[in-house]
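Dear support,

Our group has been running a series of protein-ligand predictions, and this particular one with 4AD is the one our PI (initials K.S.) wants archived with full inputs and outputs. We had some confusion internally about which version of the output was final, so please treat the block below as the authoritative record. The input we submitted was:
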Amino acid sequence: MEKIRRTTIKELLTHPSEHEGSKVDVKGWVRTRRGNKNVQFVALNDGSTIKNLQIVFDLSKISEEQLKQVTTGSSLHVQGLLVASAGKGQSVEVQADDFELYGTAPAETYPLQKKGHTLEFLREKAHLRPRTNTFGAVLRIRHALAFAVHKFFNDKGFYYFHTPLITASDCEGAGAQFQVTTLPLDNLPLTEDGKVDYSADFFGKMTSLTVSGQLEGELGATALGCIYTFGPTFRAENSNTPRHLSEFWMIEPEMAFYEIEDNMDLAEEFIKYCIGYAMEHCADDIAFLAEHFDKELPERLDFVLKNDFVRLPYTEGIKILEESGKKFEFPVYWGVDLASEHERYLVEEHFKRPVILTDYPKEIKAFYMKLNEDGKTVRAMDVLFPKIGEIIGGSQREEDFDKLNGRIQELGLTGMEWYLDTRRYGTVPHSGFGLGFERLVLFVTGMQNIRDVIPFPRFPNNCEY
Ligand code: 4AD
Ligand code: MG
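Confirmed final output from the archive:
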């Protein structure tokens, strides 16, 4: 092979005129091969774009025998002239002069044959599914969204603040933590009264994987002003739903001097920015997913971008649900934690647009939320989305030391002295929220199951790779 600099397929297809007429060097995986006795066509994909590059093999120059192992899934290095293509479906193609086969993919064993695999089947082969069109599209969109998150906050002057993954506190108080320990589980050291002796554990106390970086994020915000976190989050809830993962990524902005209204404005602007960014940078991938899975996807994305989110107090939301005349599986009454069917009724049937529900009963929300003057509700805000339900959970925080400490005592939380210091010293009104990154990816890709928008999903009874 000649020494020519390799070009990505994305580059060739985005700027064909810059390369047409010259000899190019491309590398990738074979998606399909077809043709006749005179000519063979290979669709080559290198992951840089959903689009394949057509490679034309002239059988008078390259023998059929040489091409025998060029089958779906094999990996190739090809050199040849980039020319305008006569065939439909592509503007340019490569007339192969020379090629080398990096690796074969025998059809008898390679699981990803041309077409027609269900998402369930691909979940069983999650280690190979990134090579399919569908997962290539999802993963490129996921990347674009992650990049958009950083760009949005950086451009606004927020600082990316790293909160720990191993922690000794339980932010959400939901008791859904994975414990972290080096103690021998089959021979635990015990204290005199028969309890596990955590002083002998690695950190000298009981520790877990984080369920949220918020509490540490508040320390950042009360020093740097506006921060955001973006990291893995772990929850040991036994929720086998299409919207829950045991390991997911969460983005948690936290802002000093923000009241609940500022928090809602930011949440709405942020989500719209991320969706708009993906629509602009991943048009091909979104079009592919729309065509194959969800015809209404582009319309739904556009609709969310162009319409204001409804802002509605929980109490009014309950009223709407009660008066809907709809038979829900779970009962509706003031004080209930809304089920997904209730959230989706408000969003999809009643308002037909995203809803920010505020001022929830304090009993169903976390201890750190600011108490309203009614003494019954807190300044919570959940952003509810079509098809998804809750995509963001957030609140204004209780900045009053006595009220916060009272709530901590009431709930019997311990080890919170460091957190209370934010209210002891220079306390300020502040707010924040958490966006479940995979729920955003779910919305933007139109996929149905959260296990299909993260490369290696973790859920109850599943931890492959
Ligand atoms: O509503 P949550 O529990 O809020 C918090 O953790 C706050 N500390 C956030 C904050 O105010 N800084 O979780 C926030 C979001 C949810 O709205 C949801 O989108 C996502 O995280 N989420 C999950 N996503 C996937 N799988 C799970 N098991 C999730 N649990 C929550
Ligand atoms: Mg929540």
